[in-house]
Amino acid sequence: MSPLLVWLAGVTWDGIRGTDRHLVTALSRHVRVLWVDPPQSPLRAGRPGSVLLGTEVAGVSRLRTVGLPGPDRAGIDRVTYAWLGRALRNAVPAGQPIVLVSTSPHPPLDLIESRRRIYYPTDDFVAGAVLMQKSPRRIASLEARRVHEADVVGAVSQVILDRLGVTSSFVLPNGCDPDAFSRTDELPPHPLVRLPLPVAGLVGQLSPRVDVSLLEAVAHSGMSLLLVGPRQRDFQTSRLDRLIALPNVQWVGARGFEELPGFLRAIDVGITPYVVDGFNRASFPLKTLEYLSAGRPVVSTPLPGTSLLDCPWVRTADDTASFVDRVRDAATSTVDRDAVRRFAAAHAWSERAHEFLRVSGIEPAYAPRR
């Protein structure tokens, strides 16, 4: 009997479409997956202890549970994960072999008997703890337990593994969905965009991860700036208000993944203006590969993950003046967009899924499922 991949996700299925959902969707073409949402507070999701099991897409079932208020708080988490473990055992048929993966430091890896336990953090949760309004010391303690419980540890970057100090490990960076962006240049620009060329674009949340001074500098250089994504509450409110009020800047708010090709059609260069701190240095920004999938060159701040791409269509700059110069140059230079897309296709989520099955120790005999 082939195993069931139980995926303890760091986000809900219908939340922001990030590493968990993209990778699970690709993996579901090879193995059956039970996606497990993080337990929710009853203030958001209903009666404590309630359980909902359903199917999201072919090959992916979804388990949702409701804990007590503050389900991940110290002490409360014992009840939360006792309930989740019971829900898991009831949801999985007796005798079903399981491979369990967690991308969050919160759930214990012994919630259900499994053939293999994998801890695969998608961010440096200790470096980002303050940003997430959590205790770095507690997160470090939780991660140490997950590493101890795991048979195999992986991460999206070597920076994370170096901090965890593990030896039985693998690096699996983020990927992209080339098919979703392959026809970008055949589409008209999204009808909401009303900016003169050239246009630099940022796709993603406006949060403390972003260096607002770089956005301001691009806008003040006279180039158009398109911002696609939600704004984090209380982040640089007045400063962002002033930026968005400029005539050559347009913010379109949060948009569905299926709308992104139309917005990327409207830009000439994608930007990844991340603050260079411990949290971002450990990341592998999804947006960079998505820009490339659409055939757009990229300018980024210098991050280890970005430098690993090592291609002529990704330029980095470590000061404001250089960043603006490289954005302008990339936006006005001729680019072989088909070549850019071919490069991005080598980093497709389908490729990442094959690699995950291999390096995580899940037997190749379990793939393909269909």
From TrEMBL:
Entry keywords, A to Z: Glycosyltransferase, Transferase
Record-level Gene Ontology MF annotations: glycosyltransferase activity
Entry's EC annotation: 2.4.-.-
Entry protein name: Teichuronic acid biosynthesis glycosyltransferase TuaH
Source organism of the structure: Nocardioides albus
